[in-house]
């Protein structure tokens, strides 16, 4: 498809045009982003320096933190500058780059959540074979495969979106360059591009959800057969946080992408996007880690070592 683009930059209309809301929204999103950066970087560093956390579960968790940090950073700083100084202009190439990295890392998260569900299945369903099932090689292949597939997938979306012609409005009714919002500006026939978006997004979501549902079906059956209350509680505690994150992530993604662009409500898209672009990256470190005894113990040890090195004693 030939690209006859005349637009050289886009204007992001943002979340609200009400002047009184710009500073409060800036403060809220700055706090959210700060918590997200500190939380995810903290998890990554904690897992790297603590040998007790060098397990498949925390390998995937560290990758999840990397992904959350990356796709939140692809969006939030630009939103913050727009709210604070009114910088709502984004160049054509910068828009494409923002879209690419956001889409790529969002898809990586999709498959990492599926990999984590499989890891929990292996730990609960066949605990005696866990170390031989979830080997370093298996974990690495699952993670690397997720990254490669997701970046190729994002390339397809970028090609389909920016091969369209943008010769009319350059006002993006969103706070970042999301695929449906940019596609809506095209003055050429976007039917095929929309169908590709819906098909690929539906496949990605359906495949990952199928893996998650099957994994948890086996986990549920296994926990019902457990005679030990401690074993039941342990299995439940390792899965609750994952199920919480899965519900939030897939609820918003399904709402956003599993419908044609012509039926989208732009305002509702913005609200949903705030959740999966900003809130989820902030919540994941809390949901997965701060409720986890192993992470709490590792964090306390780091704090104690820091106190000793600085000469503090209780």
Description:
With 314 residues, the chain is an all-alpha fold. The chain has helices at 19-49, 56-73, 76-85, 92-125, 130-133, 136-162, 179-183, 191-224, 229-257, 266-290, 293-309; strands at residues 9-12, 89-91, 171-172. Helix 1 packs parallel to helix 10 (266-290). It is built from eleven helices and three strands. The longest helix has 34 residues, at 92-125. It is globular.
Which ranges are low-confidence, i.e. pLDDT below 50, for 5 or more consecutive residues?
Answer: 1-5
Number of helices: 11
Overall geometric form: globular
Mean pLDDT: 85
Radius of gyration: 21 Å
- Read across the widest sheet, the strand sequence of neighbours is 2-1-3
The rounded distance between the terminal residues' Cα atoms is: 69 Å
Order of helices and strands: EHHHEHHHEHHHHH
Largest sheet: 3 strands, mixed
The proportion of strand residues reads: under 5%
The helical percent reads over 70%
**Would you report the number of β strands?**
3
User: What class would the helix/strand composition place it in?
Assistant: mainly alpha
Assembly type = single chain
List the helices and strands and how they pair.
Elements: E1 9-12, H1 19-49, H2 56-73, H3 76-85, E2 89-91, H4 92-125, H5 130-133, H6 136-162, E3 171-172, H7 179-183, H8 191-224, H9 229-257, H10 266-290, H11 293-309
Parallel strand pairs: 1-3
Antiparallel strand pairs: 1-2
Helix pairs in contact: 1-2, 1-3, 1-10, 2-4, 2-10, 4-6, 4-8, 4-9, 6-8, 8-9, 9-10
């Amino acid at each position: 498809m030939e690209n006859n683009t005349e637009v050289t930059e886009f204007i992001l209309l943002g979340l609200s045009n009400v002047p009184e809301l710009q500073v409060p929204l800036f403060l809220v999103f700055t706090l959210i982003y700060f918590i997200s950066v500190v939380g995810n970087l903290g998890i990554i560093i904690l897992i790297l320096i603590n040998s007790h956390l060098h397990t498949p579960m925390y390998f995937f968790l560290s990758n999840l933190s990397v992904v959350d940090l990356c796709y939140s950073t692809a969006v939030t700083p630009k939103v913050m500058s727009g709210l604070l100084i009114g910088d709502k202009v984004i160049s054509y190439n910068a828009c494409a780059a923002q879209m690419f990295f956001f889409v790529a890392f969002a898809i990586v998260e999709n498959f990492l959540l599926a990999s984590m569900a499989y890891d929990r299945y292996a730990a609960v369903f066949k605990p005696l074979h866990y170390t031989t099932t979830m080997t370093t090689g298996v974990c690495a292949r699952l993670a690397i495969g997720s990254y490669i597939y997701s970046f190729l997938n994002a390339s397809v979306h970028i090609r389909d979106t920016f091969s369209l012609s943008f010769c009319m409005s350059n006002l993006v009714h969103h706070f970042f360059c999301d695929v449906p919002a940019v596609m809506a500006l095209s003055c050429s026939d976007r039917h095929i591009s929309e169908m590709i978006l819906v098909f690929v997004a539906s496949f990605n979501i359906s495949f990952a959800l199928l893996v998650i549902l099957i994994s948890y079906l086996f986990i549920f059956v296994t926990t019902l057969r457990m005679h030990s209350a401690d074993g039941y509680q342990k299995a439940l505690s390792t899965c609750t946080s994952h199920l919480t994150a899965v519900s939030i992530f897939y609820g918003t993604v399904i709402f956003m992408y599993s419908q044609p662009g012509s039926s989208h409500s732009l305002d509702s898209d913005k609200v949903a996007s705030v959740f999966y672009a900003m809130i989820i990256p902030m919540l994941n470190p809390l949901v997965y880690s701060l409720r986890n005894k192993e992470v709490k113990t590792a964090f306390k040890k780091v704090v104690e070592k820091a106190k000793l090195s600085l000469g503090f004693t209780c």
